[in-house]
Amino acid sequence: MIALFFRDLKLSVRAGGGAMIGVLFFMTIVAVIPFGVGPDLNLLARIGPAILWIGALLASLLGLDRLFQAEREDGSLDLLLMQETPLLLTVFVKCAAHWAATGLPLVVASPFLGLFMNMNELAIGATMLTLLAGTPAITFIGAVGAAVAVALPRGGLLVSILVLPLAVPVLIFGVSAVYAAIQDPAPFLPPFMILVAITLFFAVIGPVAAAAALRHSAD
Amino acid sequence: MSENSLAIRKFSDLANPTRFLALAARVLPWLAVLTVLFFAVGLWLSFTTEGDYQQGETVRIMYVHVPAAWLSMMCYTVMAISALGTLVWRHPLADVSAKAAAPIGASFTFLALVTGSLWGKPMWGTWWVWDARLTSVFVLFLMYLGLIALNRAMEDPARSARVSAVLVLVGFVNIPIIKFSVEWWNTLHQPASVMRLGGPTIDPEFLWPLMVMAIAFTLLFFSLHIAAMRNEIWRRRVTSLRRQAARNAGRESLAP
Questions:
Q1: Are A212 and B166 in contact (CB under 8 A)?
Q2: What ipTM is given for this predicted complex?
Q3: What residues have CB less than 8 Å from B52, skipping those under 6 apart?
Q4: Considering chain B, what percentage of its residues have pLDDT values greater than 90?
Q5: CA gyration radius for chain B?
Q6: Model confidence band, residue B249 (pLDDT cutoffs 50, 70, 90)
Q7: How far is CA A189 from CA A120, A126, B181, in A?
Q8: Which residues in B lie closer than 8 A to residue A205 (C-beta atoms)?
Q9: Residue A148: which of B145, B167, B174 has the nearest Cβ?
Q10: How many residue pairs bridge chain A and chain B with CB atoms within 8 Å of each other?
Q11: What is the residue extent of each domain of chain B?
């Protein structure tokens, strides 16, 4: 399992893997926003956390369709299905590797983009923390969509459509936790706890459902 | 043996599509007549009862809005049960049921959204607010559309059924969120006033037409659902007959 983790990590980080594309896409989205809403620094500071969250959500959707598709193309998916370790665990490890390759760079990049957005230190820290807690949930939800669409020739867009509605609660609580941290009267912990709970919940549900979908889509 | 096993046997008898078609042919006319009857009574009641002293005539929108919203959730529940039937019992008609229910559910959700927004304009002064209940129902609508898209994207119906069954079950998380959204978040949409502990809080004047309309909508859903399932079975038969014909045609042209 550890070998699988590092294999997936290496495959996605090396050339052709597309892990860095996600970060690039994230930066592009955030860079495009000021052109749309105007370079008013106060406004940018106010909507900055929400922009960072939406950018991270879209960027993590970007690579999802490759989660199982490459394995299916070269046939190693069948080997993963047949081996003795439970498929559940395999899917979980693959999700973890995918998150480490695409989600973690987003978290690391977010403070720098926060500076572009004229956010203060507290807001940047809160955004980074909530992204760290929330992006795994998006990966786990996305694993279900990726497993469902694995057999489709052009499943990439369909994955995003299927996954986005389910990822809405993550976005809601992630952003509300950040705003709770910035604005004084609202407490930070309750929304943050709910965000962590969503992540843990989908860490269980996601691999179970993805494994079931993979089993059924194998012919 | 016990009554339970009899029920199970009856249920698995329905696994035969021909038996289901026979049953549908017998039940469907009665259901249709009942639906029309209930709709006639319900509409008559909802147009003759008095308007609310505050809302005036717009209260009549509720007689369509509330049943449609209930049905949109019930339809997803039916789909989730069918998905369980596909994955657990491998019931051959379960995937037909789930596939047939998706467009109906999407229509009911759309109806609920449209009537709600028509009511919201005079009452709340806006077509749409990003309130918890409205947002979660909108997400439900998107999920219906996504499921329809997924069903259409795959050619093999058996495989697409099992795969979308998984997704239906994952999406079921949204149903309790919709149901309790008005209690968890204190928002603009009013909390439940009919199905609650301690009895309904609305006046019998409004409750009666609402109930009749709810029954009419439920009957409408079941007749549409059975008809759609019948159509889906026929469609699959036509497809397989066409395939058979194409294969035979190829063989004949090859023969000297």
A1: yes
A2: 0.72
A3: B59, B206
A4: 9
A5: 22
A6: confident
A7: 20, 11, 21
A8: 170, 173
A9: B167
A10: 66
A11: 2-191+204-239
Question: d(Cα A71, Cα A189) in Å, to the nearest integer?
Answer: 40
A161 touches chain B (CB under 8 A): yes
The model's confidence at residue B122, banded by pLDDT at 50, 70 and 90, is confident
- For B5-51, the DSSP string reads HHHHHHHHHTTSHHHHHHHHHHHHHHHHHHHHHHHHHHHHHHHHSPP
Q: Tell me the domain boundaries of chain A.
A: 2-218
Note whether A207 contacts B: Cβ–Cβ < 8 A. no
> What is the overall mean pLDDT for chain B?
81
Give residue B5's pLDDT: 66
Structure tokens at A128: 């980074």
pLDDT band at B1 (very low <50, low <70, confident <90, very high): very low
Instruction: Quote the percentage of chain A above a pLDDT of 90.
Output: 2
What is residue A16's DSSP assignment? T
How high is the pLDDT of residue B193? 63
Contact B150 A158 (CB under 8 A): yes
Give the DSSP letter of residue B190: P
Question: Which parts of A152-188 fold into alpha helices (H)?
Answer: 156-182
Q: d(Cα B36, Cα B47) in Å, to the nearest integer?
A: 16
Q: Please state, in angstroms and rounded to a whole number, the distance separating the CA atoms of residues B85 and B75.
A: 15
The residue of chain B nearest to residue A218, with distances taken between CA atoms, is B159
pTM to 2 decimal places? 0.79
Residue of B nearest to A160 (CA): B146
Residues contacting B20, CB < 8 A, separation 6+: B14, B93, B229, B230, B233
Supply B141's token pair: 């609508």
Q: Which of B68, B144, B143, B149 is nearest to B113 (CA)?
A: B68
